[in-house]
Amino acid sequence: CAGAELLARVRQDSLALDPSQQGLFYALHIRRGDLQFKEVKIEAAEMVRNLHWPNGTAMIPPGALVYVSTDDPDGRCVGCLVQRKPCEEYASPKPVGCPEDPSWKAFLDAGWHIRFLRDYLKDAPSDSLLRLANPNTHGMLESIVCSRAAIFAGTYFSTFTGYIHRLRGYHGLGEMTYYHSTGHVFALQNQNTGHGWSREYRAGWTDDGGEII
Fold first, then answer.
1. SS3 per-residue string spanning 143-167
2. How is 40-61 classified by DSSP, letter by letter?
3. pTM for the complete prediction?
4. Which tens digits make up the pLDDT trace of 177-194?
5. How far apart are CA 14 and CA 67, in angstroms?
6. For residues 158 and 138, what is the distance between their CA atoms, to the nearest angstrom?
7. CB burial of residue 200 (10 Å; 0-12, 13-18, 19+)
8. Which residues 6+ apart lie within 8 Å of 56 measured at CB?
9. Could you check whether the bond before residue 62 is cis, i.e. omega within 30 degrees of 0?
10. Taking the alpha carbons of 68, 70, 76, 82 in that order, is the dihedral positive or negative?
């Protein structure tokens, strides 16, 4: 299927960057646009600072291939509104929900090799399943890629991130799923807290004994 083709291309890309990693890659889901929860629309630099283990080690190392699933591949926060006003109309300092620097430069500064769906669509053969896929299904294709990343970090409050978490649970990767949102990085490791409606729980992919179904 087109999703498997996209996943294979991401793994091949990672393998070309560093054969010793055997195709391992990382993934982020970054929701911006018209998401009403403005506090989770943050700068890339803040995400980089957030994604560290308790001992201070970076969760995503320099040199890693990082697949970014986002509605803002240009890094401009187009469509981001605060009080019904576009972010680009605000002077600095901008209000919460309008990143001062909406670009992805901080990911590059961290040494990450970032990739977007459009990078693979551009290079895909004209007769490939990926190129022929209906654009309305692109989100689902990206969820397949994110579901197989070594570590995945999504957006707090996003139901798309929640869906990816469930898929990762089916693959035995539920515990390696996090948020890049400030104050919530390890929220998914706590099964007793959370807003509920947009997140998933281990009960979705484990039996009564806690084993993967």
1. HHHHHCCCCEEECCCCHHHHHHHHH
2. G---HHHHHHH-B-TTS-BSS-
3. 0.95
4. 999 999 999 999 887 655
5. 10
6. 17
7. buried
8. none
9. no
10. negative
